Amino acid sequence: MSGTLYGVGLGPGDPELLTMKAHRLISGAGVLAYPALAGGESLARSIASEFIPNTAREIVMDVPMTVERAPAQAAYDKGAAAIAAELQKGEDVVCLCEGDPFFYGSFMYLFARLATDYQVEIVPGVTSMTACAGAIGMPLAARNEVLTVIPGPLAAAEMEERIVSSDSVVIMKVGRHLGKIRAILERLGLLERASYVERATLGNERRMPLADAPAPAPYFSMILVTKGADPWL
Amino acid sequence: MSGTLYGVGLGPGDPELLTMKAHRLISGAGVLAYPALAGGESLARSIASEFIPNTAREIVMDVPMTVERAPAQAAYDKGAAAIAAELQKGEDVVCLCEGDPFFYGSFMYLFARLATDYQVEIVPGVTSMTACAGAIGMPLAARNEVLTVIPGPLAAAEMEERIVSSDSVVIMKVGRHLGKIRAILERLGLLERASYVERATLGNERRMPLADAPAPAPYFSMILVTKGADPWL
């Protein structure tokens, strides 16, 4: 009988924001898998590190951060094959996922490769989106408000249109797009309603009005915009 | 010195999806607060019940589910006053919040009343949104896709426009709006791309293609729509 692949959300960075289920699965794991920047660190592993048993075998997927997709896809092909080999032996595999596995996460690449042939269970995690809202003390959405989540690389014209038509906006993966986004919000008169957060819940978290945020931003940074005046009262 | 108010996300329903931080705060709490349907159950308390100390004092906010907002706001006024009295005595208060406190959650009503005068810390939780995506095995959003979160009560015309212009759509609080939503998705040719989930991660979770979902739906139900064909490969 084949093992089960667990896609386990780790939350935004503070290890105490792991769920109890994630903690149980990781601390009991025989085989772990996680992505790492090619030749570098794995943020996922670092979040979970204090809970990883010494005895666990680890499948590291070195994912190159290139614009072309083929090299990253090859890394997931290789990782999926290594995971499949363990599952076929009847071993369960716990895959470590930053945030939530299905919210802009790379676990979907493994899921697409393995879910047809193997049992896959998703353990949802706290997203950086709500962690950022908590860090700056800004409710994301209330009542019948529409919330739009926009990736930072989106083209400026489309981004502007999305921001105009939403009550609340979360812009993820800000990174080198900070200047573009700030210019859009300034043009729309929304700069004072925009907050900036980087590395939420990690030791080096920073948060400030977007107007004060220095470029360039790290990849793990986010901008939140609310347009209503105290909509939650 | 005043105590701290903790707004603690409990996740979607499975007690094991509490974060370790939520577990620590609840199991060590001297004073708890939570909303309940007037004269009825508190879902928040039921999620956390196995971790609540016998010695904890409990502030119950009976929130009437009426269309007018004044009765609910009066309940939060009264709850906020009771919480403030504890904080003034130097007691910390742990407020139990379904899902995440700042993602369509009622904690924002307490936050608006208390955050100016008291220390408030938000502990983010797993949202029902990502829990539902995990339950049905559907990644919510990938790469540069735009994700739109729409409350079910939104007017049909606006809802249709939002669905048309998004890559991925989550419709929350479906409840008695199921028929309206299904008709819109059918008209747009998106019915086969829509999934329905109710009470995700609870013992009585149900999930199915939206086409099969029986009306009326409970309040805690959700519809997920993805438009891309395997966008995550």
Automatic annotation (TrEMBL), chains A, B:
Coiled coil (UniProt feature): none
Q: Does the keyword Zinc apply?
A: no
Which enzyme class? transferase
Transferase as a keyword of this entry, yes or no, is yes
- Documented EC number(s): 2.1.1.130
User: Biological process GO terms, please?
Assistant: methylation
Q: What family classification does the UniProt entry report for this protein?
A: Belongs to the precorrin methyltransferase family.
What is the protein's given name? Precorrin-2 C(20)-methyltransferase
- Kindly list the organism's lineage: Bacteria, Pseudomonadati, Pseudomonadota, Alphaproteobacteria, Rhodobacterales
